[in-house]
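Sat 14:20. Reprocessing the chain from the morning session after the first attempt stalled halfway. Input below, unchanged.
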Amino acid sequence: MFLAISGASGKTGYRIAEEALAKGYKVRLLIRRNSVLPSSLQNCEKFVVSLANSKELDNALKGCDALLIATGARPSVDLTGPARVDALGVQRQVESCERVGVKRLILVSSLCAGRLIHPLNLFGLILLWKKFGEAKIQGSNLEWTIIRPGGLSDREDNILDENIKYTPANLQEEGYIPRRLVAKCCIDALKTPASIGKIIEITSSTEEPRIKFDRALTEIFS
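Finished this time. Tokens:
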């Protein structure tokens, strides 16, 4: 399977790319101009794209089997970022997938997407715009999976001691998870047909019992 990863230079995106490569997938990185990539990804195929440019997106996605969306607005004084990136940017990526024939799509969204009363909404109503992006995916003809992680941690130490808590949508309100575990979850979803058409919320802790991704889906969606 040939994967495109948008937002591949971001803190979650580059980890998704690394996990995909470790599993033997062929990877194409979709990045912004002037993006900086870690040395582990220097030899990957790269396309510089603007989410506002449909031709660039179409060209970057041609020939790919799946798109993993790790784009996301960062908290900023520019309060238009979430609307541009998490809403319109996701919509344009969905439309591009439909035009060029990419069938599989995985989106990294956020816990509490769609919630109005939340501190994160001080940054341009980010959770509402993330829900807008999710809705565009759900209304598409793609084979989609939406991953909603809790608060994201950059740490890499001792993460294998943590286990993931999986739930359907709107059952978790707080919690954290290392970005590396989010990346691993995205790759698990990619190879698990039962994840298609599902919103999966994830947090992690050392107290959570260990369970494999496919078994977790069977239990939480049965």
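The radius of gyration is 16 Å.
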